[in-house]
Amino acid sequence: MTAPTTAPARVLVLNSGSSSVKYQLLDMRDDSRLAQGLVERIGEGTSRLVHTPLQGGGAKREAHGPIPDHAAALKAVAAELAADGLGLDSPELAAIGHRVVHGGLRFTEPTVIDDEVLAEIERLVPVAPLHNPANLTGIRTAMALRPDLPQIAVFDTAFHTTMPESAARYAIDVETADAHRIRRYGFHGTSHAYVSRETARLLGREPAEVNVIVLHLGNGASASAVRGGRCVDTSMGLTPLEGLVMGTRSGDIDPAVTFHLKRVAGMDEDEVDVLLNKKSGLVGLCGDNDMREIRRRIDEGDERAALAFDIYVHRLKKYIGAYYAVLGRVDAVAFTAGVGENAAPVREAAIAGLEELGLAVDAGLNSVRSDEARLISPEYARVAVAVVPTDEELEIARQSYALVQSPASSNE
Q: Known catalytic residues?
C-alpha cells in the first residue's frame, strides 16, 4: 500500500440484512460518493452482486452465482471496490460505519465497536430478532477483514433516546417492563436526524431553533416530533410494528386483537406475528403495498384501494395532529423516504383540512418531481411543508467520520 497524501477521509457504510448487504463508499472531504452496491440473496444459489462506481465514468457491474455467507459477500464487495482502485486495504479508508437497528438505552450516539459493544448488541437480540443478528454478522465479518480499522456502530434507535419518560414508557407494570426492557425505542433514527436537520437548513435556521414533524414514509413508516434538534416522541415502539399504517405492517392496533386471534381463530404466536408484520398494512387492506399501484387502482375506481389509501392517510393525520399538540409550536412538517418523497397525492391528502393549524400545500409545487429538498407550501402558510430526501448512508458516514476525527477517539 502506498501512503496517503492526506489524512484518511473515506468511510465505507455497511447495512447488513439477514440475506443482503448494502454498501456505499464516501469521501468525507466533500460528502461525495465513490461507489455503491448491493449483494442480495446471500446463502442461495441465485445470489446477485450489483456494483456501481460513481466517479471516473465506470459502468455498473453485475455478478450472479452462489454467495454462501456474509464473509463471502464482503470479500466480493472488497474485490469490486479494489477493481476501481478503492479496495478495503486502501490507506485512505478512515472507518467502516455499520447500521445497527437496535441500541437499546445504552447506545445514544455512534460508538466504536469492541468486544463489550458486540456483547451488548447481542444482548439486545430478543428485542430485535430480525435485525441485530444480521447487523452483528456484518460487523464481525468486516472486523475480520480489517481488524486495524475503526468500526463504528450507528444505531437506528439512538436519535430517539432523548424522548422523555412520559413518551417512552408504556403504562404497564414498571417492574415487568424494566425486567424485560419493554419501552418505546423508535426506529429510522438516522433518517429522522438527517431530515430534521436538513429541514432547518432549508428554512435558513439552526436545528436548535426549529420544531419539526418528520414523516418517514417508505414500506416501513414512522413519524417523529423533533423539538430543537432533539426527538421528543416517535411512532414506532418496542418494535417497528407500532404507529403508522405501513406497506405490510398494521401499525397501531388494540393489543387484545392478538388474544382474540388466538382464542377465536386458533392462531399461534408465530402466525399472529406474520399476520401483523407481513400480511397487514396496505397489502392486507387491498393486496398491494406499492403506492403507485394503489393510486392506479384508485383512478380505475377500485374501492378496496381507495379505502386502503384513506386508512393510510387517516393515521397520518392523527399523528400530525398529535405531534402538533406535543410540540406546541410547529415550524415545519417534512415528508421523506420513498412514499413521502414521491407520492404527491399522499402529501396533499395528509395536509388537507389542516388549514386551521397553519398547514397548506401548493398544488403546483407539490406536483413537481425533484431530488432536491424543497418547500411545497404556499408563502402565506404559517407552517412550512417540505419534501426532504433522506440520506441515511450519508448520515451514518458523517457520524462515523466525526467520531474517528474526535480527540477522544484518537486518544483511545
A: 156
Strand bridging mode 332-336 / 211-217: parallel
C-alpha grid cell for residue 222? 414512522
Which region, left, alpha or beta, applies to residue 296 given φ > 0 means left and ψ of -120 to 50 means alpha? Answer: alpha
Model's pTM, two decimal places?
0.91
Residue type, 372: E
Element containing residue 313 per DSSP (H, E) = helix 303-327
Give per-residue pLDDT as tens, 309-333: 999 999 999 999 999 999 999 999 9
**String of DSSP letters for 89-149:** T-TTEEEEEEEES--TTT--S-EE--HHHHHHHHHTGGGSTTTHHHHHHHHHHHHHH-TTS
Distances (CA, A) of 35 to 11, 77, 85: 11, 11, 11
C-alpha cell at position 83: 477493481
CB 359 within 8 A of CB 331: no
Question: Which neighbouring-strand residues pair with 99?
Answer: 154
Residue 364 sits at the vertex; the CA angle it makes with 341 and 227, to the nearest 5 degrees, is 50
pLDDT in tens, 272-293: 999 999 999 999 999 999 999 9
Is the distance from CB of 282 to CB of 247 less than 8 angstroms? Answer: yes
Pairing label, strands 93-100, 151-155: parallel
Residue 354 CB neighbours (<10 A): 18
105 vs 184: CA distance, rounded Å: 10
List of residues 6+ apart from 120 with CB closer than 8 A = 104, 106, 107
User: d(Cα 191, Cα 234) in Å, to the nearest integer?
Assistant: 12
